[in-house]
DNA sequence: AATGAATGAGTCTTCATTCAT
DNA sequence: TATGAATGAAGACTCATTCAT
């Protein structure tokens, strides 16, 4: 095992603290609330010190956003049984992602922000890297749909588009919960969405079956 | 006969210039780029002069956003034949909205921003009025779905939720086009979405019949 | 009788309205609250129009202050019986001035302001004219004291200084009432002051005599 | 042993510079002349830097005023022999205060300003703390008077009122000197005031005896 | 004579970034 | 490494004064 120097450990710890603080602030109050002073203070380091770990504010925020994305994908992945049927797997993804977004509002708010950032022509390059995470996620969804279509569980469809829409439906559902101070419990909402997705199923019997598992 | 005084004309012209400048800047570079100095300069008026037309920056931005929302709804409404069948009407809405968003990128970016703003608990009240426009739009979509369900053109469903998802799908489609510098022409994309909606919504028994109309 | 043209009448009316508005604002909220916009609006004239009657803001304020001073002196003068004994006259002045200041808080606040203004080396010239009113008032007080000293009603003293101090005592008493939200009724306070001044009297019998009159 | 770190020294120095600059400006040109830019420049620091030492402009001004008040009280206190007779002590206070005000014109101008500020209902709370200094001073004066009355050096009187008037007389005397570019030397003026006070306060029977001491 | 739209200088305050220690 | 004092650019908002109408 590689020897990890005291220096590296500290470096790592600092970086982590800073990113965590940044995420927390973004989630709670948005980009405008992210000031070096505050991030530093919440991370137990001083304003000036931050510059030892990040070139500038923008880089720090970008790193924080990447971290959020990574975490989200990991959380979802861990809930999916890769051996299960496609519909079951789809449901698992939906439930995992909905829970993930519900648990970490910052994930959700950040998703919104990233969209906004990406929609700015001039800033696009700066944030482009973040799209990779999304792409990876969409590909997993698409694989599930492809599987289902191949096995005639789902109607034939443009699966790339399907994956995209399903993802958007999840995000917007979660978002609405946040904005509306949602009345429904999360599970009700999630099942409402799943019911909609069930319309993609050729044979509604699949729907019942997977339902028993939850 | 409405007599429009010179004063009113000027007042109107200024207000319009300011709102337009504001919209343009928001669309191009986001909220943070909206400074009184710049809005003024793009509208051909000085910083101080703006305050003759708007109480403060926030009010001005709010007005600009409301204008965008109004315009969007009007554009969509004008394309819908209220006497047509529900599926036809739904398609008309989708096409109109997709075109509207494509034409005015600022509409789209602004929608994203508003979402972000609304997701901030503390700022919610300030922007709440903007939700009314969305509500109105969703209600129109829902009415179409209700109609379709009643006439058995559509599967039975939670139409409120359906309206919500459809709207979100349109927005995210348009957004993706913007972010990805979309390869497909708009119509292709729109038809792809319509096809997906058909898959989700339409009672297969009635499929053939209504298809002829589109 | 001199013919007064319509023009002059209007001119006069406008000027009066403006000065009144200015006084009102100074009294209520201080100098900083005096904006051309507001003075104009309270006087029923527009911002720009004011410049037809006063060269600039400073001139207008100066005129307002002069008016206040004039009014104050007139009010006091009208309450003094020039044929009465010196002690009686002193009491009349004190009572009149105390009432005047109580009635028009603006008089009082303005007095404070004038002092401040005068204490500024560089601005002194601008406000110097206001001192004339004060001088006139002090001279009247001094005349009363001189009279009393000559007739051996008062102890011998530096009457100029005496007049000065008596005036200051009145002003500070009134001021304290304003600042402390004074508990005592005005007359009690005034009589308290008079009692103090009575110590200047050689023969306390005068004190009793004049007392009966109130 | 109090270790004073380099940091503390600097901190202290800056704070002092800023307060001094503020005082100087207030004294020379009044509140309106106090701008952050100017205070900074006179204290050898930049606009932005001030905010490291004071939360905002108001706090800074308040601190400056408090400093002035404290200094004034200290100067006076140091000149009073607490074991002396009441009349002697009164004279000591008068002389000390007159000198103090003469030496620091800013003390005086500021007193005027504070009065003005306090006379504004709506701003009162903000400046209320400053009244404490005055209260303390008046109480000391009152104690002297009480002493004198008890020992029959002074006439019986409302000592609270007396203390108030004496203080006001001192202030107005000093003020007049400033406004009139006073012809008399300070000591003459002070003795004039003391003589007047003797006339008002002292029981003629005891006059000769205590005179020897002054 | 009067308006009130427009100007633009002036004010407070915030914050990313630098740099001496 | 780390600090945090200091900078300076920027931004919102106010208001006396001007001037075309």
Q: How do you describe this structure in short?
A:
Chain A has helices at 6-29, 36-43, 47-50, 57-77, 86-103, 105-118, 124-127, 129-150, 159-180, 186-197, 205-213.
Structure write-up:
The structure is a homotetramer. By secondary structure, the first copy, chain A, is an all-alpha fold. Chain A has 2 domains: about 1-55, Homeodomain-like (Arc Repressor Mutant, subunit A, Orthogonal Bundle), CATH 1.10.10; about 65-205, Tetracycline Repressor, domain 2 (Orthogonal Bundle), CATH 1.10.357.10. Helices cover about 75% and strands about 0% of the residues of chain A. The longest helix of chain A has 24 residues, at about 5-30. Chain A starts with 5 loop residues before the first helix and ends with a helix. Chains A and B meet through helix 6, helix 9 and helix 10 of A and helix 6, helix 9 and helix 10 of B. The structure holds a DNA duplex (21 and 21 nucleotides).
Question: How many beta strands in the DSSP annotation of chain A?
Answer: 0
CATH superfamily of the largest domain in chain A: Tetracycline Repressor, domain 2
Approximate strand percentage of chain A: under 5%
Q: What distance separates the N and C termini of chain A?
A: 42 Å
Rounded radius of gyration of chain A (Å) = 20 Å
Count of spatially separate domains of chain A: 2
- Estimate the helix proportion of chain A, in percent: over 70%
């Amino acid at each position: 095992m590689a020897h990890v120097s005291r220096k590296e450990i500290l470096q790592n710890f600092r970086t982590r603290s800073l990113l965590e603080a940044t995420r927390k602030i973004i989630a709670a109050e948005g980009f405008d609330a992210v000031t070096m002073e505050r991030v530093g203070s919440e991370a137990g380091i001083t304003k000036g010190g931050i510059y030892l770990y990040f070139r500038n504010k923008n880089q720090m925020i970008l790193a924080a956003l990447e971290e959020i994305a990574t975490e989200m994908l990991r959380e979802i992945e861990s809930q999916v049984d890769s051996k299960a049927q496609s519909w079951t797997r789809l449901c698992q993804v939906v439930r995992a992602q909905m829970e993930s977004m519900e648990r970490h509002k910052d994930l959700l708010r950040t998703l919104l922000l990233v969209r906004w950032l990406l929609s700015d022509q001039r800033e696009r390059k700066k944030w482009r890297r973040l799209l990779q995470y999304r792409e990876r996620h969409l590909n997993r969804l698409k694989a599930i749909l492809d599987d289902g279509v191949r096995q005639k569980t789902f109607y034939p469809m443009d699966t790339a588009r399907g994956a995209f829409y399903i993802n958007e439906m999840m995000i917007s559902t979660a978002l609405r919960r946040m904005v509306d101070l949602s009345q429904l419990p999360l599970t009700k909402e999630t099942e409402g969405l799943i019911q909609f997705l069930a319309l993609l199923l050729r044979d509604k019997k699949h729907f019942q079956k997977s339902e028993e598992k939850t």
